[in-house]
Inverse folding.
């Protein structure tokens, strides 16, 4: 009986998280177009539904009805596998995110997290590095020089920025002493956000997350002016849609990780007070709302950056990654160590 | 003053290739500056004119779709002289002349009229030279904001007399207002 309730509980959470990730990714495409338009003094999509709110559905429908084109490639299986990997890796990262503390339903505590891995951060890094295979395999199987070029760029970019990203997070781990995202969130309660203790790590992590999600200014993998569409040059119909969609799902996930690791996750000032006076459920509904506000801020920030900063040149990208971010991250680790020894 | 420093517009900027300072090299501050600029645009008034709902304010000399005029008695003014077609720099106008029969006196003002009058709206550049060339004040480019609508076939953009000739009700109204004055 216990197993059944466990499966139902976790199953519900998984389905809800999946649906929310999809919904957020869907509306990120709408938001991106709106933000782009507003930053350029335009109004953006406003025909499909109120304020263009049905635009993502219309886009999806359009992509479904498009002709499915296969290039002359010997690797048809890999060609289909590419977008699949990109999409699934974008989605499975959300399993370890603590969306809230817990709900109290039917006399039972429901933890708002699909699974509380002890090694959540390692898990996320692992999945992120698989994510590059989606791009690489798809581009390789396209049998197109532009795509191949883009695959080379994407993989080398991801490898170089993963190093700096990992090093940046090490300084956080030194402070928290735990790899579990839940633990990291709990430790940031009552405004003890990591961003105040580790601003440098935050900046490094933020810059790297732009590179990891292939967003401007580091979107060299799909640099239109040089590589046409990059890795999705040969893709059409919903396979193309999957790639584009995976980018937004990735953006949502990395915004979530940023807010969980650095902005205190679902914590908000006065959460304990709210829990005592208004009950666990209301306090946690606010907590989820707060987390989503933080996530939405980061998603907006991604778009804001995209329409502000032009694309980096490839050598600049590599210089920034290897010669600036990695030394800075190492320096940050040393500084953290010194400060911890001196003040503890 | 040296020639290099003269700036008649007052907006001249001398380009310099100076080395970037340390703060500029870090980029972060300049990126924040850029973000501030784009953020200000977020709240600026949008320049878009939402076309079917809002219509752009047209200039007083705006030239819209052509109209073949009728006179006070509602007769077509065109006499099919072909001067408009001759003046047209885009070769957009064609017509076929025909002699007016006695019983058609109430329809056409001149003894010769255009039985077919076609303007290819894909060719037309709305320059208004046909209007200037016309000796009979028969063709005018209206101020109507109706521009040739999008369509699928090229044939649909060749406007014949059915679309070009002034509607009769309009001619009646015009005559009424003229006699009232």
């Amino acid at each position: 009986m216990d197993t059944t309730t466990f499966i139902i509980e976790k199953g519900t959470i998984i389905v809800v998280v999946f649906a929310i990730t999809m919904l957020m990714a869907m509306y990120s495409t709408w938001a991106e177009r709106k933000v782009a338009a507003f930053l350029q003094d335009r109004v953006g999509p406003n025909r499909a539904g109120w304020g263009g709110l049905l635009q993502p559905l219309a886009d999806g429908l359009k992509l479904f009805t498009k002709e499915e084109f296969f290039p002359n490639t010997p690797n048809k299986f890999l060609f289909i596998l590419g977008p699949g990997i990109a999409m699934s890796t974008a989605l499975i990262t959300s399993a370890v995110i603590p969306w809230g503390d817990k709900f109290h339903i039917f006399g039972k505590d429901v933890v708002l997290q699909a699974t509380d891995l002890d090694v959540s951060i390692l898990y996320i890094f692992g999945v992120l590095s698989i994510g590059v295979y989606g791009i690489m395999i798809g581009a390789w199987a396209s049998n197109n020089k532009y795509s191949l070029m883009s695959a080379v760029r994407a993989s080398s970019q991801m490898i170089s920025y993963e190093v700096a990203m990992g090093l940046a997070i090490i300084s956080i781990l030194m402070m928290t002493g735990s790899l579990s995202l839940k633990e990291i969130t709990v430790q940031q309660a009552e405004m003890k956000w990591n961003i105040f203790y580790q601003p440098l790590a935050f900046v490094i992590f933020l810059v790297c997350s732009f590179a990891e999600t292939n967003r401007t200014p580091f979107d060299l993998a799909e640099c239109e002016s040089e590589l046409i569409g990059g890795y999705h040059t040969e893709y059409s119909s919903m396979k193309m849609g999957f790639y584009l969609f995976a980018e937004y799902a990735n953006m949502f996930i990395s915004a979530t990780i940023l807010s969980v690791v650095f902005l205190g996750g679902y914590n908000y000032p006065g959460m304990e007070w709210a829990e005592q006076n208004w009950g666990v459920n209301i306090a946690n509904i606010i907590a989820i709302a707060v987390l989503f506000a933080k996530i939405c801020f980061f998603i907006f920030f991604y778009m804001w950056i995209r329409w502000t900063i032009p694309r980096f040149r490839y050598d600049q990208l590599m210089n920034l990654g290897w010669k600036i971010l990695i030394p800075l991250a190492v320096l940050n680790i040393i500084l953290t160590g010194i400060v911890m020894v001196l003040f503890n | 003053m040296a020639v290099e420093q003269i700036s008649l517009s007052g907006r001249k900027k001398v380009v310099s290739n100076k080395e970037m300072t340390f703060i500029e090299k870090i980029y972060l501050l300049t990126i924040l500056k850029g973000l501030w600029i784009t953020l200000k645009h977020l709240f600026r008034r949008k320049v878009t004119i939402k076309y079917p709902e809002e219509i752009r304010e047209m200039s007083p000399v705006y030239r819209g779709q052509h109209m073949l005029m009728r006179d006070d008695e509602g007769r077509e003014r065109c006499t099919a002289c072909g001067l408009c077609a001759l003046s047209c720099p885009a070769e957009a106008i064609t017509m076929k002349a025909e002699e007016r029969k006695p019983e058609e006196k109430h329809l056409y003002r001149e003894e010769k009229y255009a039985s077919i009058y076609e303007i290819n709206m894909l060719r037309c550049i709305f320059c208004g030279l046909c209007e200037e060339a016309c000796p009979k004040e028969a063709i005018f480019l209206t101020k109507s904001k109706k521009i040739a609508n999008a369509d699928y076939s090229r044939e649909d953009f060749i406007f014949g007399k059915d679309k070009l000739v002034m509607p009769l009700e309009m001619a009646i109204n015009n005559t009424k207002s003229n006699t009232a004055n």
About this structure: The two ends of chain A are 48 Å apart (CA to CA). The interface with chain B takes residues 35, 38-43, 46, 203, 304-305, 307-309 of chain A (CB under 8 Å).
